[in-house]
Every structure is written in C-alpha cells, then in structure tokens.
Amino acid sequence: MCNLYANTTAQEAMRGLFKVAPERDRLGNEQPRTAIWPKYDAPVVRLDENGDRELVLMKWGFLTPKTSAKTGRPLKPDAWNNARDDKVASSGLWKSSFAARRCLVPVSAFREAKGRNPATDFWFGLAAEADDDRPPFAFAGLWRDGQPGVDGEEGDWLTHTVVTTVANELVKPVHPTRMPVILDPGDYDAWLDGSESEAGKLLRPYPAEKMRIVRQGVGITSDKDQ
User: Fold this and answer.
1) Is there a cis peptide before residue 38, judged by omega within 30 degrees of 0?
2) Residue partners of 86: CB distance under 8 A and separation at least 6
3) Residues 90-132: pLDDT tens digits?
4) What is the pTM of this model?
C-alpha cells in the first residue's frame, strides 16, 4: 500500500498541467514536497461549487474514530490513505466520495518498501523525458470535508485518499498486489466529472513500460536528489 509520495512540481507548472486558473489556486506559496506522509498536507485538484478546477491543500487520509479496547477512551484516529478500486463504489467509507467528490492528486514519485530489518525503499515515477527527470502525474483520488465521529480539530480536516489497483509488472516485484491508480491527462475530466461508470473504467494499472524506478536503497524516505 502506498504510504509515502512526493510532489516536487513547481506551483505554476501544476496550474498549467491541471488547467487551474491562477485565481483558483488556493495553495498560497507552495514549496516542493519531497516526502508526503499520511495526515500531512498535500496539494489536491478538485472541482469547486461552480464546476471549476481549483488547487487546495488537504491532509492525506480519511479519518475514522478509534477507542482503546482496555479503557474505552478515544485514541488518535486512524488515517485511511488508500482506497481499493474494488471497494470505492460499495464501501461506506468511500462510496459517497466516489460518487461526488473525486480529485486529482499531483505526484512526482511514490515509494514502496520491500523486506524488513532493514527494508529497501523503491521510488517509482514516470519514464523520464529529455528535460525532466521527474515528470509530474496524478493519482486518482477521493476527498471529503469533515471526519464523522472524530472530535477536535482533526474532525474538521479536509482530507483526500489515493485509489489503488492491482500492481503492474514494474511494481509487482516490490509490492505484489497493489499500486496507486495513475491517470492519463486525457482522463482527468472523466475522473473529476464523469459518471461512476466512466470513472470506474479508469481504475486500472498504469502501463509498466511508461514507468521506471527513480531511486532505491535503504532509508530513502524522501525523493531528494543526492
């Protein structure tokens, strides 16, 4: 499961790639993010109330309440940073967002780990272009405003999650079962504003030949060039 990714694409470049007008860029002075973990802020593209694309910051992971089995007292809520493609239309946690609140999650690379003590970190990205060793892309995402059952500040968070599908041949040796859904730019409109049926057809593995491993090693927990 994906629990770490990076987005080092410049803010202006994100606006161009995702066709967001400058006045609907809500990021402020956004800086490159070489490591994005669950419960931390990340840029997300969604449709506003008028159906226009906007860039906003969201915490990564839908939150659900958690209590101690021994004392019954509230604990820090769980963060669900991945949503399975075969559950998004039926699971109570995901289905309303899949129906009405789909988003694009800007990415430059994502990490999967293999083995234990120590694990080897593998960072995956798109095949490099001549002038960009980290071509930007987008995960298929879902979002929601407010976290039902979660008290305090966290209960008011704006959050997103990443949809996953079966692993392709590049990712499979590292993570045998799952990988994030990567969308082609030509499919952004259908994901953001298409029917559930149209969106569901986009939930498939990205072609392995269009990807590469951009970094690997022990303790590589950020996509930062050495």
Assistant:
1) no
2) none
3) 999 999 999 999 999 999 999 999 998 899 999 999 998 766 7
4) 0.95
For the chain, what are the domain ranges?
Answer: 5-218
Residue tagged 């101690």 (tokens): 68
Measure the CA–CA gap between 183 and 162, rounded to whole angstroms: 12
pLDDT in tens, 4-56: 999 999 999 999 999 999 999 999 999 999 999 999 999 999 999 999 999 99
C-alpha span between 42 and 140 (Å, rounded):
14
Q: Which CATH number describes the domain made up of 5-218?
A: 3.90.1680.10
Q: Quote the CA–CA distance of 32 and 109 in Å, as a whole number.
A: 12
Query: What is the amino acid identity at position 31?
Result: Q
The backbone region for 90, taken as left when phi is positive above 0, alpha when psi lies in -120 to 50, beta otherwise, is: alpha
